[in-house]
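Write out the bound-state structure for adenosine-5-diphosphoribose.
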Amino acid sequence: MGTDQFADALALARDAARVEIFTGAGMSAESGLDTFRDAQTGLWTKVDPVAFASVDSWAKDPEPMWAWYLWRGTVCRDADPNAGHRAIADWASLDGVHVGVTTQNIDDLHERGGAEDVVHLHGSLFAYRCTICSRPWKGRIDYPAEPVARLAPPECPLCGNLVRPGVVWFGEMLPQDEWGRAEARMAAADLVVVVGTSGVVQPAAGLPLVAKHFGAKILEISPEPTELSRIADVSWRTTAAQGLPQLVMGLTLD
Ligand code: APR
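---
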């Protein structure tokens, strides 16, 4: 593995006082959660992307989608944050640096790994709301012990419509408050560390470019080249759970 890439990455990290970590599904890969587009593990290989992440499909037949999201909730709850999640929290605990997280992930592993300041651009696996009146669902959710083909979503106590996952589906707007927070943090960052995202889904993937426009350096940590590699000052071919701990260890040895 390129030690000069590590040295270059460490040099960027040393100079940064305001760091924003921009993450995608690859951040949780070493926790055992599938990514979306990796050939060998991608969720898409098992699930038709259109059928399981669009408002139209939900309107047509919600039960298979509800079953899939609840199963993903089960898998996520059984997963543990990895060394990469924990390294981000360690970095944030160092003096003289502020570290925020802006994630495309709907899992809660950043929070369970100790990150305190996480923006979720695409919502959360554990937030549910009414499809129509958007009232947050506060009732019980029974996560299946095994994957099942269909499950009936609960009904909203206020208006009687179906409760849906609190995630952003293709074609839907991102939560405006979260988007505003993410943009502001990218504009203020000295360094954006891009970890575990292919950089193909907009508008999220445009955020590192916002940061670069305002003068931030871009460090990418990814085993493969991505759509964002071309804007990275350093693109370090390693994984989240190997690279981030190594980087933070390097900072603590300073
Ligand atoms: N460490 C770091 N990166 C990894 C690892 C790892 N251990 N394993 C895989 N990767 C990389 C892959 O090479 C790929 O570039 O993580 C990236 C995962 O990309 P995607 O599967 O496309 O996931 P993501 O970029 O988060 O998708 C964005 O698309 O499907 C929608 O809403 C969904 O939030 C998701 C969005």
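---
The chain has nine helices and eight strands.
The longest helix spans residues 62-78.
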